[in-house]
Structure prediction request, 68 residues.
Amino acid sequence: MTEHDLKPSDIAAVQIRASAREARHTTALAKKYPRNAETADHSAFYATAFAIKERHFGPDSADPRHFQ
Prediction:
C-alpha cells in the first residue's frame, strides 16, 4: 500500500521539475513515448507514468510488454 493510496484516476496533472540540461535531454519523442528499454530507462515521462499506473517502478518496468 502506498502512503496516500492514490489511484491513476485521482491524479489530474503531474509537474516534473528539471534543470534546463535535463529538460533538453528528455524532450525527444523517443523519450516521451519509449518503445524499448534503452529509451524507457532514460525517460522521466515513462517512469512517472509507469509509477502512477502500476504503483511501483523497478527493473521489470522496462519489460517490452509495457510499451503499448
Notes: The mean pLDDT is 84.
